[in-house]
Amino acid sequence: MSILNKFIKNNFQKPYILVCSSKTHMMYAKDILDKNIVSNELIPTPKGFGEICTTAIKFDFKDKKEIENLIKKSKIEYKGIYSLDNRYRYDLSSVLEMNISDDMKKIINKVQNNEDISKKDVLYLLNRETEEEYNALITTADIIRKECVGDRIELRAAVEFSNYCIKNCNYCGLRKDSKQHRYRMSEEEILEEVDYLYKIGIKTVILQSGEDPFYTTDKLLNIIKSIKEKYRMGITLSVGERTEKEYRLFSEAGVNNYLLKIETYSKRLFDYIHPDDDLDTRVQHTTWIKEAGMRVGSGGMIGLPTQTLEEIADVILFQRDFGVHMIGFGPFLPAKGTPYENYSKSDLKLNLKVVAITRIICQNVFIPATTAIASLNSLGQTLALEAGANTIMLISTPKALRENYGIYSNKNMVDLDFAIQSTLDSKRKLPKYLNYSYIEELGYKIDNSIK
């Protein structure tokens, strides 16, 4: 049995979804269905059935009456039960009028009718080289992005609080054998950065580090609880593989999202880039994160040494089939002092295709214009926003430490100035929740057109 079939793939002949009124009721419903052995899986709520980055429970029509009885008996509050045959339809007539091949039109028609596209279709889109068909792909993704998440970007910020790591990933500058200067931030130092983010209006902070056992469960829980009690901010945690119990404790403490990239869904390539990791284990951890009630952040690296287009297609489709909420695809960039330091960096156009295809097949999710794509090309972030991305992640690590968090070399430090310019260049809007008066007091100039 394949990894996907073993962990996450249910064969729903007539798929339906249950949309609950809150995360608490959703998790309660999930627990009840599991205890009653009713096949189900958690997925991002599709467009037309609920808000972006919320979670629905997918099941088969044959179990509909039993589920209705169970949730009524358990007094679960829910918004509705819906057939996925009634999925949102997109108007892509402008794309179909472009000078594209009949095969391309067939795929666009599938997307317009909100039908799942196949691996063969994804490979076809990855291979598009003519200007007209590339533009058709980007335009399709942009239309879906606008329909699903609108024109306002989501702005988040990362505090990279430790660059120690016990793993030896061949592509990563933080790997255990790296000779770079190491650092760890104290809880007080972390909270000082969070305080700044709170003042400028950021709603979600990303706490990110290498896999560093120095930060025990209790230490992380103390930081999480301090942020929740003082600032009531959303928290994304990205600290590598932890235990099933820890994921549940993090969720109970208020962690909203957990970022654990799969990087590739090819066992061959996963083994090649991760000498001390295992693909089955990574998928199991991602499953535990979802079952703990946190939104799953995943994604992959594009342009890795020896990576094929078929392997890229597989990792894109994994995001859809697993039901990932936040999908970050970034380019491979070589890091000094790693086994891959002399390999060529990734191709910008290929990365933009991947962003576009991900938006087309995953739709109602968060997709960042990554720091890595901004490092690959100075216009990369703007172009990614135009290709379907809707999120920018600021770097809020103290300036004295930033250069030491070198996952790859020549990192572009995406600060507020850079994010503002990318938003302006892509003709998008900044989030309403920012504290513009405070930001302008700090000396930033913000064009009124993007507020």
Automatic annotation (TrEMBL):
Co-factor requirement: [4Fe-4S] cluster; [2Fe-2S] cluster
Pfam family, one: Radical_SAM
Domain annotation Radical SAM core: ranges: 151-372
The entry's keywords: 4Fe-4S, Iron, Iron-sulfur, Metal-binding, S-adenosyl-L-methionine
GO terms classed as biological process: sulfur compound biosynthetic process; water-soluble vitamin biosynthetic process
GO molecular function, one term: metal ion binding
4Fe-4S listed as a keyword: yes
Protein name: [FeFe] hydrogenase H-cluster radical SAM maturase HydE
Annotated organism of origin: Anaeromonas frigoriresistens
Lineage: Bacteria, Bacillati, Bacillota, Tissierellia, Tissierellales
